[in-house]
Amino acid sequence: MTEAWLEIGGLFVSxxxxxxIAPGGSEAVLAYLIAEGRHPALQLVGxxxxxxxxxxxxxxGLGMLAAKRYPVAGLLPEKSQKALTLVQKRGVWALFxxxxxxxxxxxxxxxxWLKLPLLSGALIIxxxxxxxxxxxxxxxx
Length: 141
Fold this sequence. Notes:
The protein has 6 helices and no strands. It is mainly alpha-helical.
């Protein structure tokens, strides 16, 4: 594998992991790669957005699985309970804020738990994450 593929693959993995229940630092990886200037910023933003969105959809799937086994929302931790309430009130549009630290993963989990429309949910999640990564690219380019 070439160094370019390792860097871009590393960004994808970092973005994916950062959007699941595991902590990560994909923003720092993106900022570093943008500052290095070895890859087009648009390509890096696209890779980070795709990885982060797929990670969010994985968390969404975990929410769907949890809803089958634990239909009572009272079993959720406080962070997830707040996110569930927010998504119940605002619907699929709350998922735009899935890029936020701490609560973002819980919003995706809540979207799956509540069985919100998958396609519109994924699109709104993607737009929020694209906005975040676009802002990082703009700041470091």
